[in-house]
Amino acid sequence: MRDTDETSDLPHILLEWYDVHARTMPWRVAPADRKAGQHPDPYRIWLSEVMLQQTTVATVRDYFQRFIARWPTVTDLAAAQDADVMGEWAGLGYYARARNLLKCARAVVADHGGQFPADHAQLLKLPGIGPYTAAAISSIAFDLPHAVLDGNVERVLARIYDIHTPLPAAKPELMDRAIALTPTLRPGDYAQAVMDLGATICTPKSPACGICPWRDPCLARQRGTAPELPKKTPKKPKPIRHGTVYLTRRDDGAWLLETRPDKGLLGGMLGWPGSDWIDAGKDRPQGTPPAAADWQTVPGEVRHTFTHFHLMLTVMYAANPQDILHPDAQFIAPDQFRPSDLPTVMRKAFDLIR
């Protein structure tokens, strides 16, 4: 495809499609409302973009609504208790995002008077905001012409231009294309439009080319290569790690839990005491039980997949523990304990004994 008249109309064509087919999102201002003068809330855009990293829109909707109901402004979030935010985040995964969420909210309040900066360079200085998130906030919240490049956009552009370089090596070329296409008028709507196109029409499997607004100039459609794009460098198999967790409760129903260290996987989250997680092929680690008790192995095991490895956990259970051996462990009363506050892998252990 030549970068002439064949591509110059692409943003206009897509925006016309978006004006009719834009998805309804709880954080989004509809195109008609935006034209009428309603502006997006940068706090909502930032919160949604952080939540959407490595997560689907369907999963994020309910979390977003709960967060906004509980902390309607960035100032409210900045004043929240860490444990409350981590509890509401439980189940979304990638828990460093929740820790950075609090750091960023507090930085916005402390350094920017509770207002997200409209300057792209200033956004990049905030905790947890990288190039993609800064571009998304700049374009969607402030209508500045910064190109966004997420997985949906990568797929759309790889097909439009029939780019066969595998990801991630193709990212620089795709970013160049994204920058060239980003219009100076309505860049925020355009950013959301191209993401919607990838999510609803230019899907990974069986793209609906017949109803795509960009079907005519799409080189991959013309050449029949769309289903195989974008190409990706094969990933190495994920290693398997093993570990042990200990679940116990007193006669009054209180459970023994601990808050994990801030750094590392599940940092700052509530969880069951247990061992380190080590690579398979070695003896399964037992760790030190958190209390003196009659520990029994629960039949079955917990299986969970993280970004870089699979985890298999042996679950030990005991009732009526005696001396507490872990200084960081504490009993949580039954009226204070919500299984939903646990990260998914820890909730799986709870479900196994329940």
Looking at this protein, list some descriptive labels.
15 helices; 3-stranded antiparallel sheet; globular; 354 residues; alpha+beta
Molecular structure report:
The protein is of the alpha+beta class and 354 residues long. It contains 15 helices and eight strands. The protein has helices at 5-8, 10-21, 31-35, 42-52, 57-70, 74-78, 82-89, 96-112, 120-124, 131-142, 151-160, 171-181, 187-200, 219-223, 344-353, and strands at 240-249, 255-259, 270-271, 278-279, 296-297, 302-305, 310-319, 329-332. The strands form two sheets. Strands 1, 4, 5, 6 and 7 form a five-stranded mixed sheet that branches. It starts with a helix and ends with a helix. The relative contact order is 0.11. The model is unreliable at 1-5 (pLDDT under 50).
Which overall shape is indicated by the principal axes computed on the Cα atoms?
Answer: globular
- Average pLDDT: 92
Helix content: 40-55%
Briefly note the structural class of the backbone: alpha+beta
Distance between the termini: 59 Å
User: Would you list the SSEs in sequence order as H and E?
Assistant: HHHHHHHHHHHHHHEEEEEEEEH
Share of β-strand residues: 5-15%
Total strand segments: 8
Radius of gyration: 24 Å
Largest sheet: 5 strands, mixed
Count of DSSP helices? 15
Q: Which regions are unreliable across 5 or more consecutive residues at pLDDT < 50? A: 1-5
